[in-house]
Design goal:
Strand order of the largest sheet: 1-2-3-5-4
Largest sheet: 5 strands, mixed
CATH superfamily of the largest domain: Histidine kinase-like ATPase, C-terminal domain
CATH architecture of the largest domain: 2-Layer Sandwich
Number of domains: 2
Distance between the termini: 50 Å
Strand content: 5-15%
Length: 255
């Protein structure tokens, strides 16, 4: 009896040690995720600050210079002053458009008001069409809404993928598709650009190790929702980003 009790206690001690190890491992994983998200947040803040400085602040400075010139012209040459005022009006319009773009990049109201598909369409118009990239969006049920965490995650993944296309892909065409089936939502963003060697993404912590905040941020978003992210690319063959998120589980938890 004593031997059996000793074995039971020993077994429980072993189980406790195993659980403690699992807790420590999960805690470290959580710290890593939080650290990466905070780093991504800081990178986003730096980008917004840089855009505000490069576009809005410099535009307002130029506007002040133009107004000073208009004030001088108003006393000497009425026609030149009116021409200067028209320039001021155009600069104000440009700054308003730029400010709206920055605000939409942070959190587009169309995502909350109309849903994921219109938000992705807006993103394509804002990021890709100005670069001459023709966009095809395939969404069989554009009116379909998903839980907020799902819509936000998929929008940010689509936004990052389209931003990468605009900056690096040198693509002429991009294809977006959004499908929902069997409690899962799948977003695919594909382009016909220059691509890259996806095999270089392999690492100890998964296929996106070492690829910077963009792709790593996508992976963190789907991981937090219990989903999967797949990135495939070859030099000269374009890139495909596919994100799978279990929308059904979030619906159940919400209920």
């Amino acid at each position: 009896m004593r031997q059996q009790l000793h074995e039971t206690v020993s077994s429980l001690d072993h189980l406790n040690d195993s659980l403690a190890d699992q807790v420590r491992e999960r805690t470290q994983q959580l710290r890593t995720v939080v650290a990466r998200l905070m780093q991504a947040q800081e990178e986003e803040r730096r980008r917004v600050a840089r855009d505000l400085h490069d576009e809005t602040a410099q535009g307002l400075t130029a506007l002040g210079v133009i107004l000073d010139a208009v004030a001088l012209d108003a006393m000497e040459d009425r026609d030149r002053a009116l021409k200067g005022l028209r320039g001021v009006r155009e600069e104000v319009r440009r700054l308003v458009a730029e400010t709206r773009r920055l605000a939409y990049a942070l959190r587009p109201s169309v995502l909350d008001d109309a849903g994921l598909v219109p938000a992705l369409r807006w993103c394509a118009e804002a990021y890709l069409e100005p670069k001459g990239v023709h966009v095809t969006l395939d969404a069989p049920h554009p009116e379909l809404r998903f839980p907020e965490p799902v819509e936000v995650a998929l929008f940010r993944i689509g936004q990052e993928a389209m931003s990468n296309i605009a900056k690096h892909a040198q693509a002429s065409h991009a294809w977006l598709s959004l499908e929902s089936e069997g409690g899962w939502v799948m977003l695919t963003v594909r382009d016909d650009g220059v691509g890259f060697d996806a095999s270089q993404m392999a690492g100890e912590d998964g296929p996106l190790q070492g690829r910077g905040l963009g792709l790593a941020g996508m992976k963190e978003r789907v991981d937090l929702l219990g989903g999967r992210l797949h990135v495939s690319s070859l030099p000269g063959k374009g890139t495909t980003v596919t994100a799978y998120v279990p929308a059904g589980r979030w619906e159940e938890e919400k209920e």
